[in-house]
Amino acid sequence: MTRFGDFEPLCKNTPSYPWCNLFYRQLQRHSPDVLQGASADPKTAPVGINPVCGIPFVAVDGSLANIANIIACGLSVIFLVYLTWATSRRKAAVGRIELRLFLILYLLTLPLQILTTGSFIEQGSTALTVLTAIHAGLVAATFWALLANGIVSTQIVEDGTLSAIIPFTFFIAAFFAATTYIALDVGFTFTSALGPSNPPESLHSVPLFVLTTIWPGAAALLYFALMLYIVLGVLNEVRPMWFYVLAAVLFILSQLDYFLLNKVICKGVSSHRLDGSFVATFLETAAVGVLYLAWRSITEEDWDDTNYLQ
Fold this sequence. Notes:
Layout lengths: L7 H6 L6 H11 L36 H23 L6 H22 L8 H28 L8 H27 L17 H29 L4 H31 L7 H21 L13
């Protein structure tokens, strides 16, 4: 029976699910007999634990690794560089510094996504385990930054000031440090409190599950609720809200693609040559782009303009 905190169903049925790399290292060290089928040989194993479908390791049977998602992440990096530059140009806009930090954090997750899901770093290696832990930490920190942007938009404290930036960055560091440490402990089993999984095949870790699976969805939902209140309740605007609705739809579609269609694309459409992760990446990046448009629609660019959110 699957328990809360079990990664086994995700690592088996969701191709290119990065946190499985942590459990591969754990199983390789403590319970190697659990690694079977495609996962048995770390030199050829795809991302996942005994996956139903996985992209073969680079150069195995002519595999180009997870090439579609590598391209999607590369294009997304270019787009995020542009969004960061465009945000920086809006000198008087409320929440400019905070939004820029969110964009930078999301941008940093993209190269790490290439490395952790690209199928070109050997499973169980120290390098892949450490990179995956850092990736997990950045994802948790990124969603805090998203939620914090919503909090800053309420103007409880003035944006861009030390009273806003200090707690903003403190919790970024806290989420990053805590999640990275927990992920490293899952992979390397430094302590008995966080690892190894019991039983081994369940791939169990409640803290990692909460921070990498539950927390992102909860943070996104709270952010949407805050912006709904600000745009409709405070600004009495309707048009900007459609941007936030579109961003929410794109984010939800990205998750549906990743967890429902990913395996279908891997098995049925591409015959293990690619999976649906590249579609999820494009949709997530599009959601971030729409969030920028939403932010721009409720802020002013120049200091001479006075009708921005107070």
